[in-house]
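Quick one, tokens below:
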């Protein structure tokens, strides 16, 4: 167990790596399969989506510097076979950062998603920024059940310059919740991510895998398309655009093309709340909208291994984030 006292050893990147679970259980002579669900929770912007993508080994959840980027419950799957029919399947659910400041319909829907995601999981990764614990973190922590094994993931360790301050901070965290283990790390450091996978594996029950060995997510390509467009939208508008802007995929059509093999035609609408936001998204002579479209298309072509036609529209729907029916019609739970 990683206690504040032995954390320095665990923090040593050289201690990471190697084979997962060397003492793999064997049932009736057959190598066993392990499989379980792991929820990733934390306040906005602590690095949950970055961590999910690193754990899964491919981009599943969109990330940006803007808080509240994640709006859906996203499942990422990582399977590590042992080559003899056994091994471990990790099923991750990412959650939107828990909202505490606003009471709009959108935020209520986000909070319901968080509560749904942590119910009945095998393990919870409670993600905070290393060395920090704010009211926002406390509100998420208050939702966690003491009887579900929970790891404290102290992320963004690379940004902590005074490492000596981490041990007293961890001792303080120990008083706040019966954490099973502490994992100070950086989601951007592959060795740390590998070590976290090793730790998670110990908490997963022995049972057959739920998904195929090659499956990465249970989300459709249509869903991923909307997420990628939304990521480009937020990246390219910076802090100017309110997070209540969203993307709706109106059309997703697959065609066979003699020239390109697989071809996908997508029409998407960017929904904003004000005329001013619409002008901001379109940009000078349509430059910004064009760039959002080009970057999204290039990434999706790679992700989906196809040729793509992507058509983007911008619509103003003022007050949609306050309107429960509209929030649902745009695909939120
Ligand atoms: N330096 C550093 N930055 C990180 C690390 N992990 C994540 N980040 C950055 O933190 C920002 C937020 O990361 P996200 O993964 O989008 O955070 P999130 O918790 O999913 O955010 P929401 O979707 O708002 O809930 C991004 O700019 C990431 O690049 C890390 O280990 N070190």
């Amino acid at each position: 167990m990683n206690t504040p006292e032995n954390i320095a050893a665990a923090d040593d990147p050289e201690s990471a790596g190697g084979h997962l679970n060397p003492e793999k259980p064997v049932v009736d002579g057959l190598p066993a399969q392990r499989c379980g669900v792991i929820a990733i929770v934390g306040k906005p912007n602590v690095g949950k989506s970055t961590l999910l993508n690193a754990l899964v080994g491919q981009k599943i959840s969109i990330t940006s510097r803007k808080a509240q980027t994640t709006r859906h419950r996203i499942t990422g799957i990582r399977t590590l076979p042992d080559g003899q029919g056994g091994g471990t399947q990790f099923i991750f659910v990412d959650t939107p950062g828990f909202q505490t400041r606003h009471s709009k319909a959108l935020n209520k829907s986000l909070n319901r998603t968080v509560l749904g995601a942590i119910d009945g999981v095998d393990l919870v990764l409670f993600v905070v920024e290393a060395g920090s614990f704010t009211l926002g973190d406390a509100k998420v922590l208050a939702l966690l059940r003491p009887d579900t094994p929970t790891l404290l993931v102290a992320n963004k360790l690379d940004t902590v310059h005074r490492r000596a301050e981490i041990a007293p901070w961890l001792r303080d965290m120990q008083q706040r919740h019966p954490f099973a283990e502490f994992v100070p790390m950086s989601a951007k450091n592959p060795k740390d991510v590998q070590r976290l996978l090793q730790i998670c594996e110990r908490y997963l029950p022995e049972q057959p895998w739920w998904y195929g060995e090659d499956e990465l997510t249970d989300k459709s390509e249509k869903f991923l398309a909307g997420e990628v467009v939304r990521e480009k939208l937020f990246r390219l508008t910076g802090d100017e655009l309110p997070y209540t802007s969203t993307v709706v995929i109106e059309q997703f059509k697959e065609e066979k093309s003699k020239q390109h093999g697989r071809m996908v035609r997508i029409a998407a609408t960017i929904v904003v709340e004000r005329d001013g936001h619409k002008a901001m998204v379109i940009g000078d002579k349509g430059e910004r909208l064009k760039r959002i479209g080009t970057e999204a298309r290039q990434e999706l072509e790679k992700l989906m291994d196809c040729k793509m036609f992507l058509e983007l529209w911008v619509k103003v729907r003022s007050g949609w984030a306050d309107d429960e029916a509209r929030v649902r019609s745009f695909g939120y739970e």
